[in-house]
Amino acid sequence: MAGLDEAIPVLSDAVKPPVVLGTAELTHLAYQANGHAALLARINEFGGAEVGRRYDTAIALQLAFRRADGLEVLDEVLAESHLFRLGHAAGNALRLLALVCPGDLMTNLPLDFLTRHLNVRLDLLYVLPNQPLPSTIPDHDAAFFAAGEADPLMLARLGALYAAWPRPALNDPRWLPALERDALARSLRDIPGVCSPAAVATTRNALGRHVDSGVAICGFGLPSTTYPCLIRPYGSHAGVGLERLNTPAEMQSYLQSSFAHDFFLTAFHDYRGPDGLYRKSRVAFIDRQPMLCHMAVSSHWMVHYLNAGMEESTAKRAEEAEAMASFDTGFARRHAAAFEALHQYLPFDFYSIDCAETQDGRLLVFEADTAAIIHAMDPPDLFPYKQPQMWRVFMAFDALLRRKAGCAGSG
After folding, report:
1. How high is the pLDDT of residue 3?
2. Of 173, 187, 255, 316, which one has the greatest count of Cβ atoms within 10 A?
3. Contact (CB, 8 A) for 197 and 231
């Protein structure tokens, strides 16, 4: 890969970026059933520089499902400032700089969901296409490359910056292509104890020819000649546009209703338990240490924590509490070899997987991500077991940062 062809900014404690509330603070407010007007009132109450208030407004608009409006405001804001500071730390805080890319709320790891529980001063540095970095940026103890996705040009730039960065850096962006659904499936397909359903990138035209000609699903590289299969738009997250297709007619209907041009097609693996319910876990790996962040139980194959009925079901919450209590000696121990194999292909300091267990006991990996939200927003009265578990996660992340930052002090 080509070396760095831009100057690293000067590091200075004199730089004071605009202070903002940030994604985590505003999402917590929205999660508590506060509407858009309440978020705007909180932004105005917080005060600070006008550019900082508009940055927070861009986030609030996206939380109100006005993505295009939010991104338009963000573009205007980034024309004025590439730097922002989260105002949660006090005293002798660890200084963390996150290098992020412009985009929506799923483009970068929202580190403030983690750092808001720690004594960490978080600065955000936006790396903008075709624009140089600021000449001077805040000094820091460690840098975190927080982009979860990037186009090839930005990826090459981030990789060169990572290699040349003057402070300890986390999450080498040069490994981001390994997270693509098709690349991950290929990497994991022959690992004992792992089930990673085949995934292929395809196009609307190719799928249309399949529907018209009756080409078997295996013509796309999937191991089955029959349905069902899963389809989603390329680059989509959180189940947006994800459907299970059972027949060519359903494929045709899906294509007629979707505006996307590129898709991922994935073999469907039925992972129902003996009771007919589906269980999906999010496991974070912090310095290779596996930690369970949530486990949802649902009657639907597409499991999302927010619509799995966890708040309404005492039994489901009890099962999640037990999963968290027994994780280290149960799930993590059963899949220790699989986790170790994952780290060989995904050598990030911090990443997470959404996963389950197959009926024959293998680790079923749905996806891996460096930008998934790890949070403690669930109400403590309903989820009392989550607070101590998530505190363990936050403390592990704090230990990772301080270990990395300590490398600078030791030369």
Report:
1. 59
2. 173
3. no
Burial of 22 (0-12, 13-18, 19+ CB in 10 A): buried
Query: Looking at residue 208, what is its pLDDT?
Result: 78
Asked if 389 and 324 touch (Cβ cutoff 8 Å), the reply is: yes
In the sheet that 19-20 helps form, which strands lie side by side, from edge to edge?
A: 19-20, 83-86, 120-126, 94-100, 142-145, 169-170
Q: Which of 64, 61, 118, 128 is nearest to 86 (CA)?
A: 118
Contact 321, 385 (CB under 8 A): yes
Q: Report d(CA 361, CA 354) in Å as an integer.
A: 16
Q: What does 279-329 look like in DSSP terms, one character per residue? A: EEEEEEEETTEEEEEEEEEESSSS--GGGTTTTT-HHHHHHHHHHHHTTTT
CATH topology of domain 198-267: Dna Ligase; domain 1 (3.30.1490)
**Contact assessment for residue 144 and residue 170, using Cβ atoms and an 8 Å cutoff:** yes
Domain boundaries, the chain: 10-171, 198-267, 278-403
Residue 122, H or E segment: strand 120-126
Integer Cα distance of 368 and 389 in angstroms: 21
pTM above 0.85, yes or no: yes
Nearest to 365 by CA among 269, 237, 291: 269
Contacts for 347 with CB less than 8 Å, ≥ 6 apart: 172, 175
Which pLDDT value is given to residue 377? 92
Q: Which residue has the tokens 């397909």?
A: 189
**For 288-347, what is each residue's pLDDT tens digit?**
999 999 999 999 998 988 888 999 999 999 999 999 999 999 999 999 999 999 999 999
Q: Which two tokens stand for residue 337?
A: 């070899």
Residue type, 70: G
